[in-house]
Amino acid sequence: MIMRFFDFEVTPNWWLCVFGDMPENESDVNDKIKDKFVIINSDMPNARDLLIRQLREENFVMTGYNIKGYDLVIANAIYNAFTPQEVKIVNDLIINPGCAWSTKEHMRLQPFAKRKLRGICYQDLLDDNDGSLKEKEAILGLNIMESSVDFNKEDLTEQDKDEMTYYCKHDVYASMYYYLKVMKGYVKNKLAIGRKFGIPERDCYMCTNANLVSRALGAKRATFPDADKKEIELPSKIRQYCYDNLPSKVIDKIRNDTNPFEIDLFDNKAVRLYKGDYAQMTIYNDNPLSVARDFENKGAEWVHLVDLEGAKDGTTPNIDTIKEIVKNCNLFTEVGGGIRSMEVIEKYINAGVDRVILGTAAVNDEEFLKKAFIF
């Protein structure tokens, strides 16, 4: 079967989907392949039919990053002949389930935020994986491209649409590149298991490794009375040892709290990105120092800081905030995000940071890595 990569972009009055087929010669996967991608958007006559035809074409595996959680749900909304406005509501419900009761339309469409398009074969590159596509792009040395267009903008210009199309084509290309460099062996392994145990090829693509192996072994789901319990119970043999050798607040944090001691910084604010998308950013605290202090009060001994602006351009726009955290908190501080030069490393070390985290540069620039290691 042929891998067909795809990705959606959704705005209040317009949606877009880009498709790219894996070529027979995998060496042809380069920037030029974007010119061969198929573009379908809601402005086109019969856009719904064109989209479904691409998605359900025989002998193709629909492939993308987090498609089970997002793209296949958007595709199902379009399949149900939703207007672009309704598709945007489904989009918002996926990203922020808390908005389900904001309007009558949100309440009506809420069930569709969990329904995938049926009748297709697909491979989700997020299976047995985590993190965002943008993180993968950075690690692989790809350009971390993003659109400057507001995804909530209602009156898109043709220039806006062209920019979003360009951005979407890059994400499809990035998914294709990520598959070749990282996920191809994983998928081949699943298909090999299927051949060995007589599992249909379509099912192998759509299963996670865990589901596929359990199916091959004939495993059955077991239930436990504490299956939904979030608090971790320490075994009696090690409980006292743990409390004797670790601060009790740290142990309680590990046992009860799923949030890491991490702060993502943008414009000197503590933020979170949805799927690594800078256009879908949530500011959860205007004062990152107060977040770090809260971590410290909960027993944290270290904090991981990520400069999201630095990740894009290799600069240090949030260094003043980082200095404040170092100065006012008794925490081991590590910083990551776009550290690609000795100058930036020196700035952070001189600011009092205990450790810097190298990403893409450590893979792409061996000389820089050697200098950084010695430093």
Poorly predicted ranges: none
* Overall CATH architecture of the largest domain: 2-Layer Sandwich
Strand content: 15-25%
CATH fold field value of the largest domain: Nucleotidyltransferase, domain 5
Tally of domains:
2
> What form results from the Cα inertia axes?
globular
What does this structure look like?
By secondary structure, this protein is α/β, with parallel strands linked by helices. The chain has two domains: 213 residues, 2-Layer Sandwich (Nucleotidyltransferase, domain 5); 116 residues, TIM Barrel. The protein is built from 16 helices and eleven strands. Strands 8-7-6-9-10-11 form a six-stranded mixed β-sheet. It has a five-stranded mixed β-sheet with strand order 3-2-1-4-5, sandwiched between helices. A hairpin with a 2-residue loop joins strand 7 and strand 8. Helix 6 runs parallel beside helix 8 and helix 11 runs parallel beside helix 13. The radius of gyration is 23 Å and the shape is globular. The model has no long low-confidence stretch (mean pLDDT 88).
